[in-house]
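Researcher: I've been going back and forth with a colleague about how Phosphoesterase might be arranged in three dimensions. Neither of us has a model we trust, so I'd like an independent prediction. The organism is Lysinibacillus louembei, in case that matters for your notes. Sequence below.
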Amino acid sequence: MKILVMSDTHGDAEVIRLVRSQQEDSDIVIHCGDSELSYDHPNLADVVRVRGNCDYTDNRFPDEDVIIHGHVKIYVTHGHLFQVKSSLLALSYRAKELGANICCFGHSHVLGAEMIDDILFINPGSLLMPRGRREQSYVVLTVEQEAYKVECFTRQGELFETLHFNRH
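Model: Here is an independent structure prediction for Phosphoesterase. You can compare it with whatever you and your colleague have in mind.
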């Protein structure tokens, strides 16, 4: 299963279309909030999307979502309600409470992926205003039988980092 994860595009509808065209074979497309678009914007069609702290003009965005695909449960939220800029502790409690295998979030604009208590946490960074590095980024997660592969791409579609995590 291939999952495209992006976040914090802050009104740039074109970058969403661009990234989706680069990864057309994705099984699931996730936007972790702060799109600053309307919920029914055409570039968000068939996208799992949640409300970020800047998505205050359209009340149809949920604060969180859970996707079950096969034997994988994915929890999606923006992160601002869990203070992810200072710690992932509150977010990890919520992910555990939901029984998630994967947690996708944004808000900090800092690209990262790590395993915490057998849950894979992914922040795809920002496609508009990255923090902590130069690359405007998104992530492609491939769920394999016994592992996760996290590939980090620039907005131009250039792969710049690959991480592997064992599934338990």
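Researcher: What would you highlight for our discussion?
Model: I'd start with this: The chain has one domain: 2-166. After that, consider the following. The radius of gyration is 14 Å.
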